[in-house]
Specification:
The protein is mainly alpha-helical. The protein is globular.
Length: 274
């Protein structure tokens, strides 16, 4: 039993769960755009997310961004190095037209953790910007990347789906910001720091409404699709309602972050049923 707990803890702490969430949102994006997903993109996204998130969580505090101080983090560091190798492998399997998009998103992700100049601050420390940067990068990988690959351009469907994913990620970040309220530096100016927990939840509910309205504006908005999106919105509202400053250990890092995974699996099962 102890071994299973350690394995689960590693699964969460090594960012495997969040990597599956990004992949799931990409799969949902390709489905909503009526295009075929690229297995090499899936592999790249999975391992790149692991590398990126682990670097932000552990590498920034490591000596020269490489050598972690805590022995408990060394298996995660080794795992991240392996993930980086697989990330490079899948990257070179991708069409070259995707390289520029990935390069831009990689630079933004890097500047999120590393200052552009030694005397400057990283993007993460710019008050109130963090949540929007994270959402924008997720949109880049889950909507822009497949749109560029299939030459969809800035069509109405791409723009609306990009807004949907952006808003969804903002909603999913809110429980994390409320959880971290007691730990975050005040100059981060997160939503709970600026507005308090109650008003932040109201903002979250407004974002859920925006998500639903945008879903209804899409050309593919059939009655069945609107019903599915309604169920997701109900789930998001329930999550916001249950969010507290003092949360169960894995409420945000497993249950909230797992919503894209749950939703992608649900859509796959529904499609197989038809």
């Amino acid at each position: 039993m102890l071994g299973l707990k350690q394995l689960f803890r590693f699964y969460i702490n090594a960012s495997i769960h969040v990597a599956l969430a990004v992949v799931s949102l990409y799969m949902l994006g390709t489905q909503n755009l009526n295009i075929v997903f690229n297995k090499n993109v899936v592999g790249f996204l999975f391992f790149a997310t692991i590398v990126c998130y682990n670097f932000v969580k552990y590498g920034v505090e490591a000596d020269k961004y490489l050598i972690v101080a805590k022995p408990a983090h060394r298996p995660i560091q080794f795992f991240s190095f392996l993930a980086f190798g697989f990330c490079l492998y899948f990257f070179f399997q991708l069409p070259m037209k995707l390289w520029l998009v990935i390069a831009v998103l990689t630079v933004v992700s890097g500047l999120y953790a590393i200052p552009f100049l030694p005397s400057s601050r990283n993007l993460r420390s710019l008050g109130g910007l963090k949540i929007f940067l994270v959402a924008a990068v997720w949109v880049g990988f889950t909507v822009v990347l497949p749109a560029v690959e299939h030459q969809l351009g800035l069509s109405k469907q791409v723009l609306l789906l990009g807004v949907q994913h952006f808003v969804l990620v903002l909603v999913l970040i809110i429980p994390f910001e409320i959880r971290d309220l007691q730990y975050d530096a005040h100059d981060l100016k997160t939503l709970p720091q600026r507005f308090g927990i109650g008003k932040t939840k109201i903002i979250g509910h407004c974002l859920v409404l925006v998500y639903f309205i945008v879903a209804c504006l899409r050309d593919t908005a059939t009655g069945a699709m609107v019903l599915k999106e309604s169920l997701l919105c109900i789930l998001l509202v329930l999550v916001l309602y249950r969010t507290k400053k003092k949360q169960p250990l894995y409420f945000s890092s497993f249950w909230v972050e797992g919503i894209p995974i749950f939703w992608a699996l649900s859509m796959m099962l529904v499609n197989e049923g038809h």
